[in-house]
Write a structure and sequence with these properties.
The protein is of the alpha/beta class and about 450 residues long. It has 2 domains: about 5-225, 3-Layer(aba) Sandwich (Rossmann fold), CATH 3.40.50.300; about 240-455, Rossmann fold (3-Layer(aba) Sandwich). It is about 35% helix and about 25% strand. It has helices at about 15-20, 40-50, 65-75, 95-100, 105-115, 130-135, 135-150, 165-170, 175, 250-255, 275-285, 300-310, 315-320, 335-350, 360-365, 370-385, 405-410; strands spanning about 5-10, 25, 30-35, 55-60, 90-95, 120-125, 155-160, 180-190, 195-200, 210-215, 220-225, 240-245, 260, 265-270, 290-295, 325-330, 355-360, 390-395, 415-425, 430-435, 445-450, 455. A 9-stranded mixed β-sheet has the order 5-4-6-7-3-8-9-10-11. Strand 4, helix 3 and strand 5 form a beta-alpha-beta unit. The relative contact order is 0.12.
C-alpha cells in the first residue's frame, strides 16, 4: 500500500518504520497497555521529538499521575528538554475540573486550547479514567461524539492513553471511532521482562503487523521491528562461488568449500569443537578480504580474545582491524528481537560478508514462543541468502541424542549440516560427519579429526 499523507514521527526510527513513516497527521489514536508497559514514555518521547517551537504539544493529565510527578520522572530520560517545558510542551492538569464538573468539561477545555494555542499534538493521559467519572454509557458516547467532531475540525493529531485491556478494545466506544490503536504489553520471564508493541489498527495506512520487541532505556524506547522474510527479486540468481572454511580438510569433503550465501549448522555436544570450527570460519573470512561478524552468547570478550590469539596469532584489536567484528551478549540478557536488529545494523554499516551465531540454543532459550523462534530463524536465513552472506550457526545437543527441540527448526533451513562427536570406544577420538550439503557432492563418511593450536584438522 502506498502512503502519501503527512506523518507525525514517533521520535523512534524503528517505530516509524513499523508505522510506515509514523502516525497519519490529524488522526485520533489510542495507545493502550497495562501500567508499566511503556505507553507514557512512548507518548512523551514523541512529544519532545515533535516540539519544534512552531506549534506546541499539549499534554493533558486527567485522573492518573499529577503533572509534577510526570515531569519529575521524565528528567531521567535523554529526550527530556527542560527548556521546552511550558512553551513547546505544555502540561495541564484537568483532573480536578473533571472530578468537579464531570466528563462534559473536557470538550470545552479542548476547544479553548485549540483556539488559543493551536497545538500540533494533543495527548490525554489517562483517557480511560473518564469512564470512572461518566454517569452512564450514553453520556460517554455523547462526549465522544462531541470530542470527535471537534478534533476532526482542527489541524491536530490526538493520542488517547489508557490502561485498556483486550476486552476493553471490544466493548468501549472510543475504539470504534479512533483511526489508530497501538498496544503495549509486558511478559514476565524468569530473570527479566519482555516488552512488545503491536499495531492493531491504522486506518487508511499500511503498517508492520505482529509483535515488535522493545526495551526502556535512558534514550526512551529502543524498538526492534519484527524480522520478516525478504522479498526475493524476480531476477535473483544465486552466486555460484565457493568460499573456503579455513578448516584443513573440510573444504574437500564439501565439494570445494561452502557456497557463498549458504547457511551451515554445526551440531555437537560440549567439547566437540563447534566454537573452534566456527571461529576458524570467521577468521578465514578476514584472510579472504571478507569482513566477518561473530555473535557469541557464552564466552565473554576476554575468553574470545584468548581463543582468537591461539587460532590467528593476533590480539583482538589486530583482528578487528583485519575485519573480524565481535558481538558479545550475555545469555542472561538475550532478547531475540534486539539481537536481530543489532546484527542487521552491523551488517549494513560494516558490509559484513560472513556471520557466525554461537549458538542457536541461546536464542532458543530467549524466545518465549517456539513459533516466534522458527519464524525469526527462517527469515534470518533467507535474508542472508538474498544478501549473499555466508552464515554459520552452532547448536549444542546431548551426546546420546539428536532430538534437540531446536534442531528440527534449524536443520531443514540450513544448506549444510555438520555433526561433531567425541567418542570414547575404545579410545577417545573426535569424529565429523557432513550429513547434508545442498548442491554439492559431499562425502557422507565419518571422518576423524584433531584439534590443535591451529584449530580443527581433518587428515
Amino acid at each position: 500500500m502506498s502512503d502519501i499523507q503527512d506523518r507525525i514521527s514517533t521520535g523512534s526510527a524503528q517505530a516509524d518504520e513499523i508505522l510506515n513513516g509514523g502516525f497519519p497527521a490529524n488522526s485520533i489514536n489510542i495507545i493502550m497497555g497495562q501500567p508499566g508497559t511503556g505507553k507514557t514514555i512512548f507518548a512523551e518521547q514523541m512529544a519532545f521529538h515533535n516540539a519544534d517551537g512552531e506549534r506546541p504539544i499539549l499534554y493533558l493529565a486527567t485522573l492518573s499521575e499529577p503533572v509534577s510527578k510526570v515531569v519529575k520522572y521524565l528528567q531521567h530520560f535523554k529526550f527530556f528538554d527542560e527548556a521546552k517545558v511550558g512553551s513547546a510542551v505544555i502540561y495541564e492538569d484537568v483532573g480536578t475540573e473533571l472530578a468537579k464538573s464531570g466528563i462534559g468539561a473536557l470538550v470545552p477545555r479542548l476547544k479553548e486550547a485549540l483556539k488559543t494555542i493551536s497545538p500540533k499534538i494533543i495527548i490525554i493521559d489517562s483517557f480511560k479514567a473518564l469512564h470512572d467519572l461518566a454517569d452512564s454509557v450514553p453520556e460517554m458516547r455523547r462526549m465522544l461524539f462531541e470530542l470527535t467532531g471537534l478534533l476532526t475540525a482542527y489541524d491536530t493529531t490526538v493520542f488517547l492513553l489508557g490502561e485498556y485491556t483486550d476486552e476493553h478494545s471490544r466493548v468501549l466506544p472510543e475504539f470504534a471511532i479512533v483511526d489508530g490503536i497501538i498496544q503495549f504489553m509486558r511478559s514476565a520471564q524468569s530473570t527479566r521482562d519482555e516488552r512488545f508493541l503491536r499495531v492493531l489498527k491504522l486506518r487508511g495506512s499500511a503498517y508492520f503487523e505482529g509483535l515488535h520487541g522493545f526495551r526502556i532505556t535512558a534514550n526512551g524506547l529502543d524498538i526492534y521491528p519484527r524480522l520478516v522474510t525478504p522479498q526475493v527479486p524476480e531476477d535473483y540468481v544465486t552466486v555460484q562461488e565457493r568460499t573456503p572454511t579455513g578448516v584443513n580438510g573440510l573444504d574437500k569433503l564439501l565439494g570445494g568449500g561452502l557456497w557463498k550465501g549458504s547457511s551451515t549448522l554445526i551440531v555437537g555436544a560440549t567439547g566437540t569443537g563447534k566454537t573452534t570450527l566456527a571461529l576458524q570460519f570467521a577468521i578465514e573470512g578476514t584472510r579472504q578480504g571478507v569482513r566477518s561478524l561473530y555473535v557469541n552468547f557464552q564466552e565473554n570478550p576476554f575468553q574470545m580474545a584468548r581463543s582468537i590469539r591461539n587460532l590467528s596469532g593476533r590480539d583482538a584489536r589486530q583482528t578487528t582491524e583485519s575485519g573480524l567484528d565481535l558481538l558479545y551478549i550475555s545469555p542472561v540478557e538475550v532478547q531475540i528481537d534486539s539481537v536481530i536488529v543489532t546484527l542487521f545494523r552491523m551488517i549494513q554499516e560494516k558490509g559484513i560478508g560472513r556471520v557466525v551465531i554461537d549458538s542457536i540454543g541461546d536464542l532458543a532459550m530467549s524466545a518465549s514462543d517456539p513459533q516466534r523462534l522458527h519464524d525469526y530463524l527462517y527469515a534470518l536465513v533467507q535474508h542472508f541468502a538474498v544478501k549473499s552472506i555466508t552464515a554459520m550457526f552452532t547448536l549444542e545437543v546431548g551426546p546420546k541424542t539428536h532430538a534437540d527441540p531446536s534442531l528440527g527448526s534449524v536443520s531443514y533451513m540450513s544448506d549444510n549440516l555438520i555433526w561433531l562427536a567425541l567418542k570414547q570406544d575404545p579410545h577417545a577420538r573426535r569424529e565429523l560427519t557432513c550429513t547434508k550439503s545442498r548442491g554439492s557432492e559431499q562425502s557422507l563418511a565419518t571422518h576423524n579429526f584433531h584439534i590443535t593450536k591451529e584449530g580443527l584438522h581433518i587428515p
